[in-house]
Amino acid sequence: MIEIKPLISVENLTVEFPVRGSAVRAVDDVSFEVGHGEIVGLVGESASGKSTLGLSLMRMVPSPGRVRARRMEFDGRDLSALDESQLRQIRGSEISLIVQDALATMNPVTTVLEQITEVVRDHEGVRSRRVLRARAAQALRDVQLPDVEINLRRYPHELSGGMQQRVAIAQGLILGPKLIIADEPTTALDVTVQAQILSLLKQIRDGGTSIIFVTHDLATVAEICDRVLVMYAGRIVESGTVAEVFAEPQHPYTQGLLASLLPLGGDPPKRLDAISGQPPRPEAWPSGCRFHPRCPLWKSKGEPEICVNEDPQPDESRTHWAACHFAGEGVR
Amino acid sequence: MLRYIVNRLLIVVPLLLALTVLLFLYVHAVPGDPIAGMLGPNGTPELVAQIRADRGLDRPLLEQYWSWLSGLVTGDLGVSLISGQDITPIVIARIPATLQLTFAGLFFVILIGFPAGYLAGKHKGGWLDRILSPAALIGLSMPAFWVGTLLILVLGVQLRWFPTGGYVAFEDNAWQSLRLTLMPALVLGITLSPFLARMVRASTAELAHEPFIVQARTRGLLPGTISRRYLLRNAILPVVIVIGMQLGTLIGGQVIVEQLFNWPGVARLLIEGAVRRDYLLVQSLIFVIAVIYIVINLLTEVVHASLDPRVRL
Q1: B312 touches chain A (CB under 8 A)
Q2: What is the distance between the alpha carbons of residues A37 and A83, in angstroms, rounded to a whole number?
Q3: Is the CB of residue A62 less than 8 Å away from at least one CB of chain B?
């Protein structure tokens, strides 16, 4: 097999927020890679650190947060060594962020045309109105927005939710980024529009762009992702291809997430299994394996000490691994 | 938008009608007889009665009200009880001076208030903010008559840079007219801009947390683009609203400033009328001011709608 360098490779990434003397680690010692033309799902509950992780790849953590990493290599460059103006040149042109609430992320007082073209102006120095307009129109056609000429003149609030999300994606795509971080891009949309946006993202991936798809929705992961990273309490607890993880989840947390999905065929279950308890807060991560207080496997095994005292060390050289002392066991 | 304006004007009609009733009753409830006051010790009861009859004050109140109202509709503000002159031409003669002062005052309010609020809000907690925010508080607590007196004493009497009061029409002598406008307009600017500054500061500081500002940074836009197209253009929006809100204060401030600087505007005419108990003059003037207020308010709404695409009238 030929070794292909991944597009982005992150080793021991930590995002810290200083809170009253101590440091709260929203993302704690995370390593992963994303290959070219790959959609990687980043799955987790609220406050698991998945959105912060996405932002930290652009070194855009809200202040006073700090990003530390042993290595953060993007397309042959070390992201952690770049200064602010070099980072600015990467943001929006090589790495784009698309978020859930497209309307909130658009300037309310400028038209779609201005919104889309300002990145072209600022990154490529293009000044010609005619060229900018043509670029914008093309970008909107690429995301299959109807009535491009009319919509270019519209303001964000005049568009429907699905159209807003398409415009947001067009904004992110217009400079041909190598990596798109899509943070719950379909959560706010209704199901048919969701399906359209997902198929659009797949087309973008087929064009060679890599996508990190941040979501809490396993169904969409199954639909579009190639690989999946499951995050819990600031850490990646399971990693593997979608086929592997969905067929044989090894971490009790992943097993719980999958068990809480409605089965597609057959009779609906009497009651859906849910993971008991609340996700922990970053200022008070549990010791040892952070999932142990909510872990059904830990309880069924008679609450072994090792889960409380020792961090599970997964074998990350395998394609499918889980950070669990009893990986692969547990009730399916 | 045209439909909106027409609708608004239709609402305004009953409003103004109610205002005329209130004004009429209010002014007539003030104790003291204007004619007796005007004539002073020379006013024999016969003379007072004669002049009262001459001005129509002996008629029943309802009749007086009706003749005033029917005059207003045709643009006739009535006759001054004291001088016997037609009020309409007197008011019209005063309007240019008042407008000149109003717009010059607004100019300073915006010139001082907007940049101060914007910069303080953009660098909230920075050194500029720590100077400007207390300064705004001090400005808020300074009454117009005090600031005006101070300016007259320092710039007018001590330094002799500007004349201490008076008015020259712009078309007669533009330079002198501007020199005379500066100090009273500055008083309006100094006393009214702190409120604007505080509003702009709050809204600009809030903008920094808006998702669209954060998103603009993730798109690698130039800092200048973010300032101009994102911060500035959204920070301007509250200015129009605040100015619409402050209009009443501006007119109130005008009364003091016109008096202080001997400025022959509508507000000073109002004081003169009130002092002499010239019912009709006061009634009619307040009515005119109310109409101006409503028109400018409508205008600010139209301007706001043209600046903020989300507002559709």
Answers
A1: no
A2: 27
A3: yes
